[in-house]
Write a structure and sequence with these properties.
The chain folds into three domains: 114 residues, Phosphorylase Kinase, domain 1, CATH 3.30.200.20; 135 residues, no CATH class; 199 residues, Rossmann fold. Helix content is 42%, strand content 19%. The two termini are 29 Å apart. It binds zinc ion. Zinc ion (ZN) binds next to loops.
Length: 472
C-alpha cells in the first residue's frame, strides 16, 4: 500500500523497503527509499521518545567521530528536521560495512575501545555518574518512574559490587547501552550500532550483535540490563500510548512531505572519500594550461601514473601584453614542464582557440574518452565560458561507463559529493601551480586555491582536501 501510494504521489521517489519496526515507543519508522536514483535511508520519529532517540543518535555520532575517524566512515544525515508533528532524518544509504570500516567493525571497535578506555575504581561518586548517564538514555519525564523499577535498584547494586570498571568515554559510556564481559573485564560501551539509525552502516548491526551475544549469553549483568531496558520501554510505551494498529498510509503521506523538502533543498550526501582503485584510469580535461593543477593538483600528485591530462585550448589570450603566438608557446612549455614533473601517464593539447571553446564543439566531440573510469572536468557552474562549455559539450557517446566528476576553480562546488585528502602533497601542489609563471604573475592562484583546499577539510578534519562532485 505504501509503495503504491508513494509511487502515485511522486515518480522520483520510491520506497525500496520498509524496515521492521520494533513494537516499542522508542523505535521510529524507517525505510530505504530511492530518491533521484540514489538510495537513501529515511527515519521518521513521531513520539517524544522516538524524537529524543533520533536527535541523540546524531549527537552521539559526532562525539564518537573524533576517536573513530579515520577507522570508520561515519554516515551523517543529509537532512534532519521537523515537519508538522514529526521529526525526520535522511541518510545516504550504505550498502555494506566495507565502506565504513573495511569489514573489520568489531576488530576496529575493540582496538579503539582498548586504546581509549580507562579503568575506574568503583566509588559512590562513580556509581552516581553511571546512574545519571544511564537515565539520560530516556527523556526526563520518565526518570522518576524508571527509578522506581525493582530491577533498577538490583542492577545498580550489582554494578556497585564491581571493584573496577572499564569505561571508554565519559558521558557516553555511562549510558550502558552495551555491557560487555570479555572474560577479564567488565566494559561499559555505548556505540550506536543501531540498524534503525544506521550510524556507521546497515550491516554492522547484525555483525556486532552476533559478537556481543557470544559474550552476553554468559553474563548475568548484561541479561539483567536487557530485562531492565524492556521494563523501561514498557513504561515509555504506556506513556506514549502508541497504537500498533496505526494505518500504514499515514507514514506514506509523511514520507511524501519529506521527499518534497528534500527535492527543494537540493542537498546531497555528506562528502565521501573518493576511493580510487589502483586499476582506475582518470582523464582530466583542462580548458587552459593550469586548470588541471589548480583544480586537481593534489589528485595529480597522488595518482599521476593513473592520470591522463588533455588541455583543450592553447591559452593564447593568457596575457594582454604578450602577443598570442608567443603566449601559446609559453603556455605549452609551462604545461609540458608541469606534466613531466607530476609524471602523468599521458598528456595532450588540442590547441583550440582560447576563450572560443564552444565554437569548436565539433573538434572537442571527436575526443575518444572511452577508456576511462573517471572523466574530471570543471563544474558547469565554473564561471568562465570555456570552463562551463566542457560539461555542456560532453556527450555520452564520447565515453563509456565513466563517472563524470567536477572540480572547482572560478566557483566553489555547491554540492560536493567526494573529497581527496591532499594534505601530504599540498606543498607539491603549490609548487606546481607556481610553475605556471605566466599566469601566477597576474593572480596568486596557489595561495587562494590552497586556502580553499584547507577550508574544504573542515567537514572531515583533514588539513587539506580537494572537493569533487560526482555528476548524478
Ligand atoms: Zn581556465
Amino acid at each position: 500500500m505504501i509503495h503504491a501510494l508513494f509511487r502515485h504521489l511522486d515518480k522520483d521517489c520510491e520506497i525500496v523497503e520498509v524496515l521492521p519496526q520494533k513494537p516499542t515507543a522508542r523505535c521510529p519508522f524507517s525505510a530505504i527509499v530511492m530518491i533521484g536514483g540514489y538510495k537513501k535511508y529515511v527515519v521518521i520519529a513521531k513520539t517524544d521518545a522516538q524524537k529524543f532517540y533520533l536527535k541523540r543518535s546524531i549527537e552521539k555520532q559526532r562525539e564518537f567521530y573524533d576517536d573513530f575517524s579515520p577507522y570508520f566512515q561515519f554516515n551523517f544525515p543529509d537532512e534532519f528536521g521537523n515537519l508538522d508533528d514529526f521529526t525526520y532524518a535522511i541518510y545516504p544509504y550504505i550498502e555494506n560495512a566495507k565502506w565504513c570500516c573495511d569489514n573489520r567493525p568489531i576488530e576496529i571497535m575493540e582496538k579503539i575501545y582498548k586504546k581509549h578506555a580507562k579503568t575506574h575504581k568503583m566509588s559512590p561518586g562513580l556509581l552516581a555518574k553511571i546512574q545519571t548517564d544511564f537515565l539520560s538514555s530516556w527523556p526526563e519525564q520518565y526518570h522518576a518512574q524508571i527509578k522506581q523499577l525493582p530491577l533498577y535498584k538490583e542492577y545498580f547494586d550489582n554494578i556497585a559490587k564491581q571493584t573496577s570498571i572499564k569505561i571508554y568515554r565519559e558521558h557516553c559510556d555511562y549510558t550502558v547501552n552495551n555491557i560487555l564481559d570479555d572474560g577479564k573485564n567488565l566494559w561499559l560501551m555505548d556505540f550506536e550500532f543501531s540498524k534503525n539509525f544506521q550510524p556507521v552502516g546497515h550491516d554492522l548491526h547484525d555483525y556486532s550483535r552476533t559478537v556481543m551475544n557470544q559474550y552476553q549469553t554468559k553474563q548475568k549483568l548484561a541479561k539483567m540490563k536487557e530485562i531492565l531496558m524492556d521494563n523501561i520501554n514498557d513504561i515509555v510505551d504506556d506513556c506514549c500510548k502508541i497504537k500498533q494498529t496505526k494505518k500504514k498510509h499515514k507514514w506514506g503521506k509523511m514520507m511524501h512531505k519529506i521527499m518534497k523538502i528534500f527535492h527543494r533543498s537540493k542537498k546531497f550526501a555528506y562528502p565521501k572519500i573518493w576511493n580510487i582503485k589502483p586499476t582506475d584510469k582518470i582523464c582530466i580535461l583542462a580548458p587552459h594550461p593550469d586548470d588541471e593543477t589548480i583544480g586537481c593538483g593534489g589528485l595529480l600528485a597522488l595518482y599521476a601514473k593513473q592520470c591522463d591530462v588533455i588541455c583543450l585550448t592553447d591559452g593564447r589570450y593568457g596575457d594582454p601584453d604578450i602577443a598570442p603566438p608567443k603566449m601559446t608557446q609559453i603556455r605549452k612549455k609551462e604545461l609540458e614542464s608541469v606534466m613531466k614533473k607530476f609524471g602523468v601517464n599521458k598528456f595532450a593539447m588540442l590547441n583550440l582557440e582560447d576563450s572560443h571553446l564552444r565554437e569548436n564543439k565539433a573538434q572537442f566531440q571527436k575526443l575518444n574518452l572511452r577508456d576511462y573510469d573517471y572523466i574530471v572536468i570543471p563544474s558547469p557552474r565554473d564561471f568562465h565560458p570555456d570552463h562551463m562549455a566542457v560539461a555542456q559539450m560532453l556527450k555520452k557517446s564520447m565515453y563509456a561507463d565513466a563517472y563524470i566528476v567536477f572540480y572547482e576553480i572560478w566557483n566553489t562546488l555547491a554540492n560536493q559529493t567526494h573529497y581527496v585528502d591532499i594534505s601530504s602533497v599540498v606543498a607539491q601542489k603549490r609548487n606546481m601551480i607556481n610553475m605556471y609563471k605566466s599566469q601566477v604573475k597576474h593572480i596568486d592562484y596557489a595561495s587562494r586555491i590552497i586556502a580553499l583546499n584547507h577550508y574544504r577539510g573542515i567537514c572531515h578534519n583533514v588539513e587539506y582536501e580537494e572537493a569533487y562532485e560526482f555528476q548524478k
